[in-house]
Amino acid sequence: MLGDPVVPGWITPAIPLIMIYVSAFPEDQKVHALIAFQLTLGILSIILGMTGLASKVVRFVPSAIKSGVILGAGIIAIITIFEVGGRFESFPWTISIAIGIGFYLMFSKHFQRLKGKGGLYGLIGKLGILPIILLAVVVAPLFGEAPWPAIEWGFSKPDFITLWNEYTLFGVGFPPLMMFITCLPTVFAAYLVLFGDILQAKAILKEADDVRQDEKVDYNPNRAHLIFGGRNTMMSIIGPDVTMAGPTWAAMQVVITERFKEGKIDAFDFWGNGFISFRYEHRFIVVANREFS
Q1: Domain check: are 68 and 125 in the same one?
Q2: 24-47: per-residue pLDDT in tens?
Q3: Are 225 and 53 in contact (CB under 8 A)?
Q4: Residue 215 and residue 97 share a domain
Q5: Judging by beta carbons within 10 Å of its beta carbon (0-12, 13-18, 19+), is residue 6 exposed, middle or buried?
Q6: Rounded to an integer, what distance in angstroms lies between the CA atom of residue 158 and that of residue 107?
Q7: Are 173 and 203 part of one and the same domain?
Q8: What is the structure's pLDDT at 92?
Q9: How far apart are CA 138 and CA 132, in angstroms?
């Protein structure tokens, strides 16, 4: 909604690092430690965005290093699934089937031709990875890798009072200054991971620019830093989270960009209608600035 042409997400690779950092504190100090960490990361990102240093860093980093960071992010994502003790050992059939069909729906020229005919194929193509998520929900129980989902109807009853008193800055108070100093090395380490997401988003959108030269998609690292820096700052006050607020959700960004690359007519239904938040049904998309004649 602030003009960033990305699907926002977590700083996923940094989650284990942040969890280890927070777990080192006594039980009564963990929330303070998390607040200090996320607030520091948010302020650092905002400063880099306001001063323009974010764009300069992205611009002056050698191409070889950028390529290594982008390629490394993909390799790490694969390793976390297929390493010993990873998720593949628990869901071998589900992951194999879902990945195979997912790649077919997203990148196969054969399916692109079927999708162009409209009808059911066209609908499936427009839903991106949502059909794959639903397929996994069915395949996992069929192969005995997960129980069937238990669907319950009703309204949840969140305990807002406890949340406010024990998990927000207003309830637990401002963290000690020493916590902000202590978290700096880990914050810089988390920023390195975040920087990789910036490069990844820029590379994905640049590839779309090469295909769709009829429309300019404006990705500005400075603006991106201001946005996710503001999100982290706000979250540290009203609801700190070890996932942090990152620049992009890579899997969803690829889905949206692939749709955009297919052409103006197919993409107009969601690119042309302004800024709408994306969650699981990506008929609703976070999109770039768009001027109409």
Answers
A1: no
A2: 999 989 999 999 999 999 999 999
A3: no
A4: no
A5: buried
A6: 41
A7: yes
A8: 93
A9: 10
What pLDDT, on the 0 to 100 scale, is given for residue 290? 37
- Beta carbons within 8 Å of 35's beta carbon, 6+ residues apart: 169, 172, 175, 236, 237, 240
Q: Is residue 151 domain-resident?
A: no
- Cα–Cα nearest to 80, from 14, 156, 140: 14
User: Token match 């303070």: residue?
Assistant: 32
100 lies in the same domain as 59: no
> Within its chain, how far is the Cα of 262 from the centroid?
22
Can you state the angle between helices 92-107 and 109-116, rounded to 10 degrees?
Answer: 60
Per the structure, the count of domains in the chain is 2
Q: In the chain, what is the straight-line distance between the N-terminal and C-terminal CA atoms, in Å?
A: 21
Residue 74 is assigned to a structural domain of this protein: yes
- Structural domain boundaries, residue 242: 12-87+160-271
Q: What average pLDDT does range 237-263 have in this prediction? A: 84
Q: What is the distance between the alpha carbons of residues 263 and 130, in angstroms, rounded to a whole number?
A: 21
165 and 248 housed in the same domain:
yes
Q: What is the pLDDT of residue 107?
A: 80
Residues 63 and 60: their CA atoms lie apart, in Å, by 9
pLDDT > 70: percent of the chain = 88
pLDDT at 264: 62
Q: Is 3 left (phi over 0), alpha (psi -120 to 50) or beta?
A: left
CA angle 284, 289, 290 (to 5 degrees): 90
Q: Which residue is listed with tokens 């197919």? A: 266
Question: Is the confidence at residue 271, as pLDDT, over 50?
Answer: no
Residue at 278 is within a domain: no
Q: Are residues 44 and 178 in the same domain?
A: yes
Per-residue pLDDT, 277: 40
This prediction's pTM: 0.73
